[in-house]
Amino acid sequence: MEEVGARLVARFGPEAEGWLAEVPNLAARLAAQWGFVLGELFASGASSVVFRCQWPDGTPAVLKLSPDRALLTKQVEMLRVFAPSGRVPAVLSADAEAGAMVLEEILPGTEAEDMPQTSLPQQWGELLAALHGVAPPAHWPLDLRGRCDEAFVRIGRRLSEPAIGARIGQAAWQRAQRRCETLLDSRAGLVLLHGDLHLGNVLDGGPSHGLIAIDPKACMGDPCFDAVDYVVAGAGQEGVEARCQRVATACGLDGDRLYAWSRVIAPMAAIAHLTCDGPEPVIDELLALSG
């Protein structure tokens, strides 16, 4: 819980410590209210605490709690929007006021990064077909332009850090922004995107379910965007360009557009690797892609 607390404080400030102290009482109250059996602490993120639990009918589930009630409420809404795809966890219950939701646990739940890589492009294509086949709600307020604008502002602040600024300058950042604007302005066929489909947000749901996507940030935009993080993760492995060709073919995407998106995302990925002292060959390939 100390590690979870450190992440929450970094995200929400010192007041998160008070919220975290009340988590055991909140979890116990919800267990009594909804009738589930509370289990152990599970893989919690930067904005939530997650526990394994068992739903009254025996379904393996996870309880997700967050001090950001608005964020969690939006996550519930997005999961329910994508529910017809069969490719997101089912929401078993939610309480917006408590900042809580219970989701079915995805089993075996192996992250895509740790799955056999030979069959992954084809499985990714099937996942995208299911997600992008969902009809967007009328007047859905979020689009890819807003998502990208927010990311460039938030991540762009990191350029002022000496270790980041020494490797990624304003010129490279501005190139990425111009490339992004060009792609957004061309408005290729729009679909409802997952919006944050990196390898850690895609889990193995087993033979009967296929790949399952978690934590959507649903927005309207270019279908290539939901494959770009997977493509950029090829840096230092088979290479971004080679992976781009494989993924574009398997997913039925425009390979040139997908590669152009990879050049937009590359400096952001490089910053992530620089932050955690990632492998130099990976960073070098991402910086070259940003050129």
From TrEMBL:
Q: Which SUPFAM superfamilies match?
A: Protein kinase-like (PK-like) (SSF56112)
Q: Which InterPro entries match?
A: Aminoglycoside_PTrfase, Kinase-like_dom_sf
- Gene3D superfamilies per UniProt: 3.90.1200.10
Coiled-coil region(s) at which residues? none
Q: Which organism is it from?
A: Streptomyces pulveraceus
Check the record and name the Pfam families matching this protein.
APH
Q: Which domain of life is it from?
A: Bacteria
> This protein is called what?
Aminoglycoside phosphotransferase family protein
Q: Where in the numbering of this chain does the Aminoglycoside phosphotransferase domain appear? A: 41-241
